[in-house]
Amino acid sequence: MHRRSFLKIAAGTGLAVALPRHARAALPPYKGPFYVMISARGGWDPVYLCDPKPKGTFNRLYDYDPVDPTAVGDIHYADIQLPANLVTDPLSPQYLMKNADFFAKYASKLVVINGLNMQTNNHDRGVVTIWSGRHDGGYPNFAALVAAERAPEHPLAFISGGGYSGTGNLIPVTRLNSVGSFRKLAEPNRTNPADPNSTSTYMHADTFARVAAAQQERLAAFKAKQNLPKIERAAGELYLARGNLDALASVALPDALIDLPNEMGDLERMAQQTQLAMAAFSAGLAVGVNLELGGFDTHANHDTVQVRQLAKLLWGIDYVMSQAAAAGLDSNLIVMVGSDFGRGKGYNGMDAGSGKDHWPVSSAMFLSGNPGLLGGGGRVIGGTTELEQLPIGVDPDTLELDESDDGIVITAPHVHVALREMAGLSESAAAKKFGIITDMLPLFG
Length: 445
Known about the structure:
The protein is of the alpha/beta class. 32% of the residues lie in helices and 12% in strands. The longest helix has 25 residues, at 302-326. The radius of gyration is 23 Å and the shape is globular.
């Protein structure tokens, strides 16, 4: 089949097809807002972060008095110190961030939701729920939902470096875990794309262009013969991907990747993925990205491991914001931080090495360099009881704590309905296809 015939058929069936590189118009850059979803994988402990409790059943590490709390504005936090034995390499402590330092820097730009009932103790179900708003699989990650609505044709619209990457088949997911793998994908003709000083290629540029054009024509012919929707869709996605190599090559990747001590390898991966995400955002090719830091499933050694992972996480969030600021994106960026569920209630033993088990009551944090995008920063919504670590309901209009039967306990569906409203997606076709039926709470204004 001739190229012109294929495009005519594609247009007649409503298929959006990117032209080959030498004939395709440049994609209009996506200009934001940009979305970063950060997963604290394994089940974090909000009592050691943004939902502090007096020393006792739930807390063995810090002093907290609700009458005279450790807080920045309205945001209370657990004032945990970081002992030297959390890490072994003398270069590692600089990559840990204390709660006090984090909240002092970002409280005015934060919205904290406490008493978030995840309605599950299961890791897989919790991960799906916090990022899609539904327990069952098949629903898209919120960032993927936005990407599908705002820039579905962009080759890097939704990037996943871990966490829940479901897209509901609305758009392809780009699974890139490192800048090095991206360079190989974006510049397949370079013999050594990892070396910015190397210009050698496998074939002459004109030859490579002819090969690429032939591949696209062959793929177009293959797609035109398919009757099964799944194969047809996959062929179309491959066609689009190959046709966007020029766009991928335009991403200004950092020559120097951040290098952390060996024991901070999980945080280094998150930081390098952040570098890739900011490059894709700056190029106008990406809408949302997943980042992940694991190690929060602390059934043992809770007071050491949970504290260390939270300190890494806060440094990682700070790195996201600092990189966004350096790129001029922080005021157009929305960050969501969440986890599978919480931990508690209380410890599972009496010794210093005991842990905390799964607990469905959790928290979530939202951050932006422009808190107006969140309906205002410096806010805490919801809470938990001091004696039982159970969620306290809120008034559906004012969001004030309401312990009566009229109070609504916040759940992940509430969060995602509010997120969709904030992003202007409530009436979109994708949001209606993946509907969430629950009360609308004005979490973000």
